[in-house]
Specification:
The protein is built from 5 helices and no strands.
């Protein structure tokens, strides 16, 4: 049972990410139309392609940070080194009632 769930989930995620990348990066016939119109090398087209690539990098980078705890720790350490996070960490700003999941407020 768990193996089937893992296979099905991986397949669904692969189809989703493949469709997302295809939608973001490629459109059928776009390159042929741009080549025919001579606009392929325009600044707007280059800027749009760079923006799409940046969006894909941000999406998959965010996914990697969300999924992998080692990447999360590395990002937190980098942010602390740059001064965006305090040494106490993000937990220091959370009230005690929210930190303890078994805390019952009466």
């Amino acid at each position: 049972m768990p193996y089937n769930v893992i296979c099905l989930t991986s397949t669904v995620l692969a189809v989703f990410f493949g469709a997302t990348l295809n939608t973001l990066l490629l459109r059928p016939g776009t390159e042929q139309r741009m080549l025919a119109a001579g606009k392929y090398a325009s600044k707007a087209a280059k800027r749009k392609r760079k923006l799409k690539l940046l969006l894909v990098i941000v999406i998959f980078g965010g996914l990697a940070v969300y999924i992998d705890p080692a990447v999360q720790e590395a990002v937190v350490e980098q942010l602390r080194g740059l001064g965006f996070l305090s040494e106490a960490g993000p937990e220091a700003h959370v009230p005690a009632a929210h930190r303890d999941p078994l805390h019952i407020v009466t």
